[in-house]
Amino acid sequence: MDQLFYLKECSSTNDEVSKFLLYENSDFIGVSTFNQTKGRGQYGNTWAAAAGKNVAYTLAVKAKNILLTDFIFNYYTAVVIRDYLANLTDKDVKIKWPNDMILKNKKIVGILIEKKKINQNNYFIIGAGFNILQDQFEEISHAGSLLTQTGQVFDLEDFVFNLHEYLSEKLKTIPSEQDIIDHFNLHLFRKDEISVFEIGKERQNGIIRNADEKGELWIELEKDGLKPFYHKEIKLLY
Predict the structure, then answer these.
(1) CA–CA separation, 196 and 221 (whole Å)
(2) How do residues 58-92 score in pLDDT, each as one tens digit?
(3) Rounded Cα distance, 33 and 57, in Å
(4) Can you list the positions of beta strands (E) in the chain?
(5) CA geometry: angle at 141 spanning 140 and 147, to 5°?
(6) How far apart are CA 147 and CA 175, in angstroms?
(7) This prediction's pTM
(8) What is the side-by-side order of every strand in the sheet holding 217-221?
(9) What whole-number distance in Å separates Cα of residue 77 and Cα of residue 83?
(10) Which residues are registered as beta bridge partners of 191?
(11) Are 195 and 237 in contact (CB under 8 A)?
């Protein structure tokens, strides 16, 4: 059973979704808004979005139905959302490790996945902010939207309805762990390209080689050779 609820305005769909997990057999419950006032990103970062131009969406999935490690589930969610956007736009959407969506060098989606126990059930709470119609981003030089990157105008209601259907369906039949890792690496942003990285306060050239099953990103650095990194240990400058 999967349902999608719409809120005219809320602080964070990730926070609001627990109020809707009161139904029996609620394996997939989605909540969306076009006006999120206090969106959260990875590791306490904020996710700001213009009202009426973007989509904040959260899907709560019962963890008992997901036979994947947290890292692989994170990868799979990124792959599914990437595929949805690529199919929708007919463009080559990339995944910036661990799970931002990049289109023509601009970030168009940020994803935050949390694990919570609600009403005696453990849930994966998949939260995502989609930049759809916003065309001004002020100081956020790396941000873009589907509008700025494709020139296409999408209907927000249709977008979130189809997203919910697509994501829920893909989470009912999950491929093998190796298939997920392979698919993730196939679409990894700046893989096998020379990039600039920031480690602490030092900058160094390097090449992203692959992401592994433990959630690490392997980078071949100019000075230090091939090394694995967890999120926040290294920053890709682009």
Answers:
(1) 9
(2) 999 999 989 999 999 999 999 999 999 999 999 99
(3) 7
(4) 2-7, 28-33, 39-40, 46-47, 54-62, 94-96, 100-103, 106-118, 121-131, 194-199, 202-211, 217-221, 225-229, 235-237
(5) 90
(6) 32
(7) 0.92
(8) 225-229, 217-221, 202-211, 194-199, 235-237
(9) 10
(10) 208
(11) yes
